Amino acid sequence: MTTRVQNALDQLKINGVRITPQRHAILSFLMESMGHPTADEIYRALEPRFPSMSVATVYNNLKMFLEAGMVRELTYGDNSSRFDADVSDHYHVICETCGKIKDFSYEPLTEVERKAEESTGFQVFGHRMEFYGVCDDCRNP
């Protein structure tokens, strides 16, 4: 088990959350996955190990992880949320052919947020930016 997963589990325990085998598996899968999976993909990946686990169990745990600030929900207009356990400031590059999402690190655009506040009078809490293109696999089948 990675240190990152153990730290997340410890944080849940501190907050009084019981660590079930399913919860542990969902969190581990998310933290080890670089593919930004959907809830259904998580369910399908874990179902052989947990045949009694339901899709609702996955959704309920994802909701709890979201509320705890441990994962982010990514919605890109295809009606299926994807989940990212990397909650650091980063951006995404999305393949317009297959939908694959990859992380892209770049310095946070806090200056742009400040300008948006100045221009609009809004209090800005954050922003989202994504890039679209075609991945290597789709370009070179």
From TrEMBL:
Cofactor(s) it depends on: Zn(2+); Mn(2+); Fe(2+)
A Gene Ontology biological process term: regulation of secondary metabolite biosynthetic process
Binding locations of Fe cation: 127
Pfam family, one: FUR
Domain of life according to the entry: Bacteria
Bilayer-spanning residue ranges: none
A molecular-function term among this protein's GO annotations: transcription cis-regulatory region binding
Keyword terms, alphabetized: Cytoplasm, DNA-binding, Iron, Manganese, Metal-binding, Repressor, Transcription, Transcription regulation, Zinc
Residues binding Zn(2+), per UniProt: 95, 98, 135, 138
Cofactor mode of binding and number, as noted: Binds 1 zinc ion per subunit. Binds 1 Mn(2+) or Fe(2+) ion per subunit.
CC per GO annotation: cytoplasm
Subcellular localization, as worded in the UniProt entry: Cytoplasm
UniProt family annotation: Belongs to the Fur family.
Annotated protein name in UniProt: Peroxide-responsive transcriptional repressor PerR
Organism of this sequence: Paenibacillus zeisoli
Name of the gene this protein is made from: perR
